[in-house]
Amino acid sequence: MSRVNFDIDSLRSFATGIELGSFAQAAERLNRSTSAVSAQLKKLEQQAGASLLRKAGRGMALTEAGEVMLGYARRLLELNDEAAAAIGGAELEGRVRLGLQEDFGESLLPVVLGRFARAHPRLRMEARIARNVELIDGVKRGRLDLALAWEAGTDSPHAERVGRWPMRWIGGAEATASKLHRRGEPLPLAVLEAPCLLRNAAIEALDRAGIPWRITFSSASLAGIWAAVGAGLGVSVRTPLGLPASVRALTAKEAGLPALPMLGLALHRAEAEPVQAVAQLASIIVRTLSPR
């Protein structure tokens, strides 16, 4: 039986279309015509011997085969791009300076460091963990080449949104609505020191709902917040990204608390046209954050 060699360009169009929720947008991002992308999708289905997409209302949804293909497509593209970067960038030297939120220090950073080091063994990456204002200021002043920061009304000239995540009430690993707060008593909050976007979101949501609250624990670091929440000292607000095992994200219904808004995440660049190493690091970060 002859082996099937999936076409990398077709896989990229497929994965990009699913990521963006639109194959027209995928065509624009990949500098192709929509008809070319449609032909690539048809070719991919022929190679797979199965339908990858099905109609869902006015849009398209993945079939079971499509879900399987998407997982493999992302892995194949990741290896392909890593190989291309390693071969093309092995001789690059110097440093790349990355700033990011504490949310990503343990979950995202090790993965990004590993992939970047394999692609650029002679490049040194410096990472700085800081709050939003400091990160964006670092990019504007040229102290950072890239910064991953929550969208908080403060922008930089060269920023792109990499995704949106739901804010969630955060309780201990065994948290239930009855354990989070006692009826008739102020809701105990464990939050980062001001100014903090998510702290403000929690307080505003509670005030609108007429739910009394009090800050029982405040810290300059997330590690302190997780310790306090895990110990049952209070409830916090964060996204589901990078949560330790000692806490868990709750929906508003589970927590018995008001709904919270979505939160955008942006990647800020110091230069409009960054050097190759910075551009590849940005690509690694975006791919790592893409839903699996």
TrEMBL record:
Domain HTH lysR-type: 6-63
Keywords: DNA-binding, Transcription, Transcription regulation
InterPro entries recorded: LTTR (IPR050176), LysR_HTH_N (IPR000847), LysR_subst-bd (IPR005119), WH-like_DNA-bd_sf (IPR036388), WH_DNA-bd_sf (IPR036390)
Superkingdom as given in the UniProt entry: Bacteria
Keyword Ion transport in annotation: no
Family from the record: Belongs to the LysR transcriptional regulatory family.
Name of this protein: LysR substrate-binding domain-containing protein
